[in-house]
Sequence to fold (135 residues):
Amino acid sequence: MLGHFALMKEDHQQQLDGRQEVMLGFAKEAQSRGEYFFYVRIPANIGPLDRGDRYEDPLQQALLADDLGEITGGGSQLGEGTSIAFCGLDVVVRDRDRGLMVIRRVMRELGAPSDTIIEEYLPRYYEHPLESSVA
Fold:
């Protein structure tokens, strides 16, 4: 079981929520294999099938084409009622910088919302904005 882990975000500590604890575990597993984990958090009310068709399948193809890595999972966070607050993709890559660049490029090309965030957990928590060109 993962213990509580404080992360630095915008100059103040933030306690991880349950989802982020799980993501940190995925990041540690990837790190133990010499790989890098990113969680692509997409603020869109779309279900699993649409998420797969719209984002997961094309991103998976791009990662495989560049021999960078793969999508290892995904999910949705329920919002009010039956709505979906956001959905996300678990991505593991072998080259951090190239992987982040491909994720950003493909998600922009696919028309992901501009407030999509690419979460990185190690060596520290960082939220990479989709629209940023700096890794």
About this structure: The chain has a mean pLDDT of 86. The two ends are 31 Å apart (CA to CA).
